[in-house]
Amino acid sequence: xxxxxxxxxxxxxxxxxxxxxxxxxxxxxxxxxxxxxxxxxxxxxxxxxxxxxxxxxxxxxxxxxxxxxxxxxxxxxxxxxxxxxxxxxxxxxxxxxxxxxxxxxxxxxxxxxxxxxxxxxxxxxxxxxxxxxxxxxxxxxxxxxxxxxxxxxxxxxxxxxxxxxxxxxxxxxxxxxxxxxxxxxxxxxxxxxxxxxxxxxxxxxxxxxxxxxxxxxxxxxxxxxxxxxxxxxxxxxxxxxxxxxxxxxxxxxxxxxxxxxxxxxxxxxxxxxxxxxxxxxxxxxxxxxxxxxxxxxxxxx
Length: 301
Known about the structure:
This protein is mainly α. It folds into 2 domains: 13-93, Orthogonal Bundle (Hydrophobic Seed Protein); 102-301. Helix content is 62%, strand content 2%. The chain has helices at 14-19, 21-32, 41-52, 61-73, 77-86, 89-93, 95-98, 115-128, 133-141, 160-175, 179-196, 203-212, 219-234, 245-267, 273-292; strands at 104-106, 112-114. The protein is elongated, with a radius of gyration of 23 Å.
């Protein structure tokens, strides 16, 4: 019996777990993310009964976040999320995420995917790539603005960025999510689909995107955005083993811009600041055009 009273793999004794049914539900789901098999049906039934009895209602947000973070940090986060959904806990803890299941989104082959199922594949791809925790969190929440898109527009999601931003902020505030996680999630909400649409023939637009996401001032955050976009791309059916060309293209463009910056600044020395900024933008666009063998500003030039 004494062996059962020692701390387990998640740092709580068996007695502690028995004393807190809510913590037991969360801990079992988090543990599933670290195991090869899912939770057995009998255990899921018990978890469902506990959730239906309302045990999660008064659980402190910091405790919820601790268990969610454990599962997201494990090798198969989807197993935690699926377990939480099967016992109705996801709808209580993360209703914004739970609402994504059953909502269609445009894809290639097949032509539509379920956003919730796509999310599960995205977080698992982030884990497979050993992505930083901020990437995993962003993968969890950056699409929450798509849950209630007008039915007449589906599978297109107009204005989901505007709907998603306050929801991401609310989730993050609710659980006290670290600032870097919130920042990347908001950036992914605004920019992921734009990264997917980045066109190789428009060097000026690519340069503007790099400036908009502050790739020059925050290179680590830019790299994390590229990782998240890669995970999102590879989560679509048939893409699991394919390289993501847009990430490679944007990294090439960023490198070309950096090489051009010093010369542009030197050439503009002594000019007014606005002229220096214009010279820098022009130099970056020219460098991207040369690196990608594209036009500087696009077909309208």
